[in-house]
Amino acid sequence: SQTIHQWPATLVQPVGSPLSLECTVEGTSNPNLYWYRQAAGRGLQLLFYSVGIGQISSEVPQNLSASRPQDRQFILSSKKLLLSDSGFYLCAWRTGPKAFFGQGTRLTVV
Amino acid sequence: GQQLNQSPQSMFIQEGEDVSMNCTSSSIFNTWLWYKQDPGEGPVLLIALYKAGELTSNGRLTAQFGITRKDSFLNISASIPSDVGIYFCAGLNSGGGADGLTFGKGTHLIIQP
What we know:
The complex is a heterodimer. Chain A is mainly beta. In chain A, strand 7 and strand 8 form a beta hairpin. Helices cover 0% and strands 58% of the residues of chain A. In chain A, strands 2, 4, 5, 6, 9, 10 and 11 form a 7-stranded mixed β-sheet that branches. In chain A, strands 1-3-8-7 form a 4-stranded antiparallel β-sheet, with no helix packed on it. In chain B, a hairpin with a 2-residue loop joins strand 6 and strand 7. Chain B is mainly beta. Helices cover 0% and strands 52% of the residues of chain B. In chain B, strands 2, 4, 5, 9, 10 and 11 form a 6-stranded mixed β-sheet that branches. In chain B, strands 1-3-8-7-6 form a 5-stranded antiparallel β-sheet, with no helix packed on it. The A-B interface holds A 6, 32, 34, 41-44, 46, 49, 51, 57, 59, 88, 90, 92, 94, 97-104, 106 and B 30-31, 33, 35, 40-45, 48, 50, 86, 88, 90, 92, 97-99, 101, 103-106, 108.
């Protein structure tokens, strides 16, 4: 069966520090991968999606970047975090008509 | 880009009541998905719909794929406290951005004691 791993679960980082969130999927190949951000009690804002290795589409220009170094690995990064980068980050994958989410990372920038 | 209008934004109900929410769009979708998100966790897939007019149940939850393919509905019967959370609809088609996957903004379900 397919599983998705997202870590860390929580993260507190100072303003100006770098960020690296990792997401890996098991049990499937060539998935579409997504990074979403969610403000408290709000909807899902699509940040990046990828349909293959090295292929990244950015939906919202901002302080973040994404990379897909391997088929089932998706990484969200920042060189210098801003206070406004705080939020709940969710990774998701899809190979057919259904999409599945990871458990999320709560990022607090202080 | 494509948009899904999900309503209501919030629902305040009494335990035991039935719940109805919907998603509408100006675009046609091939698949409709309904998710539930508990606080601090990722959304979990509840129901997937693949054909216009399809009616699918998952326990007390029932969802329908609208016949115009531009809308979908989710009903929860006899709500219980653990139904509290945010419900998201999502539509999938072959066009649009993000490889055709679009999410609604969610319905907050709050159950009053």
